[in-house]
Amino acid sequence: MTSPVWHPYAHLKTQTPPPKVVGGDGPRFTLESGESLLDATCSWWCMIHGYRHPRLVEAIQRQADELCHVMLGGLTHEPADSLARELVRITPEGLNHVFFSDSGSVGMEVAMKMAVQYHYLRGKPAKHRMLTLMKAYHGDTAGCMAVCDPEEGMHSLFAGFLPRHHFAPAPAAGFAASREDVQPDLDALRDVLEAHHEEIGALLMEPLLQAAGGLNMVSPHYLRGARELCDEFDVLLIFDEVATGFGRTGKMFAADHAAVTPDIMVLSKGLTGGYLGHAATLATDRVHDAFIGDSELHAFMHGPTFMGNPLACRVALESLAVFEEDDYLGRIEALNGVLREELLDDAGLAEHPHVADVRVLGATAVIEVHDADSLEGAADFARTQGVWLRAFGRWLYTMPAYITSHDDMRRITDAMKGWFRSQAG
Ligand SMILES: Cc1ncc(COP(=O)(O)O)c(C=O)c1O
Questions:
Q1: Which residue out of 135, 251, 269, 417 is catalytically annotated?
Q2: Domain check: are 223 and 248 in the same one?
Q3: Atom number of ligand 1 nearest to Cα 269
Q4: How many whole angstroms separate alpha carbon 265 and alpha carbon 111?
Q5: Do 261 and 373 fall within a single domain?
Q6: What is the DSSP string of 41-83?
Q7: Which of 199, 216, 271, 359 is most exposed, with minimal Cβ within 10 Å?
Q8: 425 pLDDT above the threshold of 70
Q9: For a substitution probing ligand 1, which of 9, 47, 48, 137 has the most ligand atoms within 8 Å of its CB?
Q10: 62, 121, 51, 413: which is closest to 288 by C-alpha?
Q11: Residue 347: its pLDDT value, please?
Q12: Three-state SS sequence of 126-146
């Protein structure tokens, strides 16, 4: 009997029955058939500790024994209080307030609503639109779809349903670009702000790494320039660190590369080590304090049922403890070394006729091809090598769990390179 489960991003006519996962351990998950696959994507980039990490599993079990859930409306609990304090400690200086929610998309919705209400409360209600970037991806809910790349994104058919925002070009200068090379990108941002700042409440970006939009890697100079422009035009800066947070770019947060504090920052995915869905939207005093006032409109009108879920908060606390105690930033640096050596230093790969570009940042690597058709079959090929890869569009990428051994990292890069070697071009 076919399963009633409706799978994401799947063409119902052509999809094949998805393999059934029955367990996982470290960087691998196991299928019903007994096949074990090394996960090169750590499940949409969230399982940063890999599967069945004993400390995370135990943290959930212990918390489940005490308190699985209670509403955060009018109540609080120790896991939420402690996690909020820890997030304030580790995020860029000045992000002192934490609003919990249940997924990256909702965390971004919260951020956008916060920005709109902030300006409203300061007497600038016209600043109710967002400025976002081409190649951006911020989630699949309606508010988020409206700030994703409207052309390359997955949501063009919904155009008539979505509110209209402003878009600036995707930054073209890469991670290592100089301040001068970044200037044209910042000029493009300035042009939109000059023309529309009276209705722009916030600039949103995935700092340093536009992930689902094609793993576009961006210079820290761009973040610093964006910060200055936001201050000049009274626009809030929102960093969507749902994908970049917790080490993915080589530092704890992408913002750390630029020493920039955004006004609002959103975390999810690695927040709980992927073990439970949760998100946090952090805000500075400046944003938070605008909500202190006498009218009923000063209350922030958002409250997801599962915000601050004790199980999620507890596992997030444990995830962070493991991250720090086991020197994950050191591990990420070492993985980065392997990725650079295996992918960037491989002249044969760069010269392959299908390959347009190879990029590496932190524990992220992508091989971009000229034509998406040339990745048709890459996932099946990788599976024959014991590796789970899931290419999208023109991008064959890896974002491994940080506990991946160097041998396993090479197994993943071998599968990626092997695909191109198997294609004569
Ligand atoms: C940068 C970014 N923002 C937001 C989201 C949405 O998160 P979620 O899928 O948890 O709603 C994603 C998901 O991939 C993401 O990469």
A1: 269
A2: yes
A3: 10
A4: 8
A5: no
A6: SHHHHT-TT-B--HHHHHHHHHHHHH-S----TT---HHHHHH
A7: 199
A8: no
A9: 137
A10: 121
A11: 85
A12: CCCEEEEECCCCCCCCHHHHC
CB of 382 within 8 A of CB of 419?
yes
Provide the H-helix boundaries in 300-395.
310-325, 328-339, 347-351, 378-384
Whether residues 317 and 334 share a domain: the answer is: no
pTM of the model: 0.98
In 3D, which of 144, 361, 388, 182 has the Cα closest to residue 266? 144
pLDDT of residue 424: 74
Domain end call among 277, 306, 324? 324
Long-range contacts of 422-425 (CB under 8 A, 24+ apart): 422/381, 423/352, 423/354, 423/374, 425/352, 425/353, 425/354
**Domain match, 199 and 284 both:** yes
Give the binding-site residues of ligand 1, using a 6 Å CB cut-off.
44, 103-105, 108, 137-139, 206, 211-212, 240, 242-243, 268
Phi, psi of 35 (to 5 degrees): -65, 135
What CA–CA distances, in Å, run from 411 to 85, 217, 237, 332, 339?
39, 24, 39, 17, 11
The one catalytic residue in 149, 240, 263, 408 is: 240
The string of pLDDT tens digits covering residues 311-363 is 999 999 999 999 999 999 999 999 999 999 999 999 899 999 999 999 999 99
In a domain, 37, yes or no: no
**Both 133 and 250 in a single domain?**
yes
Are residues 348 and 302 part of one domain? no
Residues 133 and 121 in one domain: yes
| 43 found inside a domain | no
